[in-house]
TrEMBL record:
Record-given protein name: Serine/threonine-protein kinase/endoribonuclease IRE1
Similarity annotation: Belongs to the protein kinase superfamily.
Family annotation (Pfam families): Ank, Pkinase
Domain of life from the UniProt record: Eukaryota
GO terms (BP aspect): intrinsic apoptotic signaling pathway in response to endoplasmic reticulum stress; IRE1-mediated unfolded protein response
Organism whose genome encodes this protein: Stylophora pistillata
Amino acid sequence: MNPWIADCDGKSPFEVLVENESFGSALTLLKAVFENDKNRDMAESARRYRDQRGNSLLHMLCIVNNERVLEICDYLLDNGCNVNAQNECRQTPLHLLCSNISEAGPSISKEAINFIQLLRKYNADETLYDVRGNTCKDLLSKFQTFRKKIKWISESIQHKDALSEAVRGENSQKVENYHYYNKPIGKGTFSCVFPAVDGRDGREVALKRLEKARLEKRGDMLQREVRCLLKLTSCSYVVNYIACTRDSNFEYIVVEPMEGSLDKYLSYNEECSQASTICSQIAGGLEFLHQSDVLHRDLKLQNILYRRKPHFIVKISDFGLSKFLQQKSGSESVMHSKAGTRRWMAPELLVENTKEHSKATDIYSCGLLYYYVGTGKKHPFYSSDELLMSNFQEIEKSIQRNKICWCSSLSSEAVYLITEMLSEDPERRPAASSLLKFPFFWSDRTKVDFLKLVGNQKEFEKPRIL
């Protein structure tokens, strides 16, 4: 039985359970779907579920005035359901809550406050517009007392002190409504990233600052990054776009706050206990990119960000070098440029200047990341000679010669997956949509079931002699 398929009355089994206030059964059903590896497709259909009016499971639940539903919503959000999903009226779950509060007037329930705080904990965006042009903040504009009751939760662990100083106006600057700390928490070739606070409601954000003078030489780099972020906004494993702003010298992209880069995380956790989680989430993000006809073209440690609250998650970031595939031609590649970081590039891009970026080159870069995560910060084309490895040209030569230095700490499942992803032949590399089907991502239960299945196969009594 598929719990999301509607009956003749247009209601799914899950919806019926919620309407009958069988909340314990509804939660048990969700756990059976998300915690059984065989139900991966059904779990993804739960994340993508929409009813006839475009409402997600979160939309359906957030209007139920019962505190027991909070646990179900928390479970869905913790398992990757999009907190900012919009229905046909472009309303998010937070929109529906705020609309109900606006209609109810002064008699606001404790459950409504708890619901809003839960959604905010998972970065619900109160600045999104519905079809009538209303944001959640607009809907609550008449209820200042209520707004004060909602504590905008402090999320950051790594940047708490810096954000505290920014709020107090110490060692900080201001652009529009955003107060940001002077010292950047990340630097790229064309930008710096600063921790910031929205002065209107205390929401923590990150500001990516780009110098206008340098942008003029880079064409539509800013517009391209914003277009990509907007197209990918419903993906849980891509950094969430919030807004754009500017001052006389700089352009700013406002995004959700993260703790830091994957490189920094691994420097604290060399024996990475989260390796499988990190790799699966990167795979989920890359699959969404490629399904949306977006090539990242610069997958590397610095462009994978992590956060530990409310749960550990990694997200793909920095789409300044990304490109949309040319859908008219049916091509799955875009013309090569100097985009990307050479030691994280596929060999065909290093050898031939005319070679095109493709989904396969993104997969190769992803394979390099998997090796690095699984081995505690080693590049697959590293050398035991540290002096040679300090020279990036030596890494490039090893990539071109396909001289992989396999590390004994990698499991056989990891070696098999990475070998396929780092194939010299781009045609042999797996698609992003098939990565999570590899044994490396199987649960222990799935592995045991597979071995039982193989063990139960009948042997040939008289095997054929070739």
